[in-house]
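Discrete fold record:
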Amino acid sequence: MTSRAEEQKRQEHAAFLDELIARFAETHDPSLRVQVAEALNARACATDLGSRLKILDELLEHFSGAPEAAIRLQVAKALSCKAGTLSRMFRMEEQQSVLAEFVRRFADAPEAEIRLHVASALLWRARDPVVMARSEQVVAVLDELLRRFSQDREPEIRAVVAQATLDRAKALGRMGRQDEQLPAYNDLISRFAGSQELRVRIVVADAYIEKARLLRAFGKIQDQVEACREFLNDFSGDTREELQEFVCDALLAMGHGFATIEKPAEAIAALDELIQVQSKLRWRMPPRRLAEILLCKAKMMEFAGRKEEAGAVYQELLAMGAKVPGSILWLIPFSREARESISRLGCVVAALSDRRLQL
């Protein structure tokens, strides 16, 4: 369909909604009232921000006190949309007021779909760039979300709660409250590790990786390795590509962990498995990351006395430089130890003589 045809269809649909609203705005027929409320929401979504607010206010004026469940849903959607629109217009005080009204009126709604809109609105409020500039505000908003919805059993709301728990843990880290961050990750993992829903599994996987990074930052390398091992026991068999990317992250972290505590065989095995897993995915590993993996593998081989194999890996690294123009400078951090290793292993090859790198 051409863009002109799409525009004509959009205009025709807008005209239909306008006619429906004009003809039946004052109707008392229950089914028509629902259609009018739905039409107002649809019309609001199809127009510019300024006009959108006017249409949403019209909907709220006509239907705000309606008791019918179907219309209550439309009112909830309108309040959520209005809060989001005000945020996009950087009218933050008004946005906060509308969101507060939305939460007050509908957080305890018996309808799961309405509660989901409230929970989602709070999550996106915490992700608003203006709010994210102040991590303490992020934590405050997410605390309210968790206080209201952490015990909700609806699957989609549980997914929002899981994401909010993860976002809160990351915000604690940005505030320097790492002593609270690790328990937050552990709580998330223990609560949601049994879920098979992809959205929740992704959140749990992210929490595992963040936990492993935090443990490494604390200098708890053995604990980092164990966290990665626990993650891999749970996730390595899940073949969904979105999760296999986290499996790659865990294998890399495990490889680095074993390298740090001088267990070369285990480090090499983890890195080899990482390369094998990644080769089966649609996305391709960035050259810089692959170089990091190969460098770590080469060092572990050298540490284990497997010098010829280490030399072959160094040569593979240098060959990468010929294929990725301008990248040789970051392919290997040529510290004194690395330079000595390369020279000692006889790996100074033609890639070094093309003056892109001087040893």
